[in-house]
Amino acid sequence: MALIDIETLIKSKRLIFTAGSTGLQSYRARAIQSYLHMVVNNQRSACTASKRAAESQGFSEKWGECMVRKWTHAWVTQQVLPTSKRGAHGKTLSLLDDPAIRAELRSYLQSNKWAMDPVKLVNFTKNSMIPAAADKYVHHIVKHEMPAGLKKYMELELFPHIHLKAKKGVSLTTAQEFLWKEGFQYTEHKKGLYYDGHERPDVVKY
User: Fold this and answer.
1) What is the C-alpha to C-alpha distance for residues 87 and 22, in angstroms, rounded to an integer?
2) In angstroms, rounded to a whole number, what is the distance separating the alpha carbons of residues 7 and 135?
3) Which of 35, 79, 100, 117 has the most other CB atoms within 10 Å of its CB?
4) Which tens digit of pLDDT belongs to each residue from 94-109?
5) Cα separations (Å) of 85 from 24, 56, 162?
């Protein structure tokens, strides 16, 4: 019944998704449809179906399969479509309020793929740099390397995966604000300098 209902809803000309038929909500609805189709008609497992459903709509595999199951549960039990705080205007700052998007961005940041000089970053994390150089470096990565890497990742990888086009791109200010909200900032502790307070509960921020 839930499968028939979502298929009817998607085909209905009266339905207007948030941000239109190419918006994030529309793709999430289609992911629900795909998941239910594979489970009901093809007897796929929940894990396999959610993974394939997420990939079919361009969502990232890492968090997509989990979110598809969550969206489907809400649809089956409450007939509620997944929504995003992004709104009809597609403002980037609002999109970054989406828990799934935030989780994906945080995973990227923790991968250290943003580092312009991976070797230097390794030396920093091993406390192999002299204090003055470490202090200068940590300020640099928080203010420049991480925001620039995050901006590039959102524009070239994440947004295309969820079929979202940021017409004006993502500003460095937006990237910096996200980093600040997530706790990626300059911190100092008696054992050394860090740039992520979340991973070290004994770090004191200032």
Assistant:
1) 13
2) 56
3) 35
4) 567 677 777 888 888 8
5) 10, 23, 15
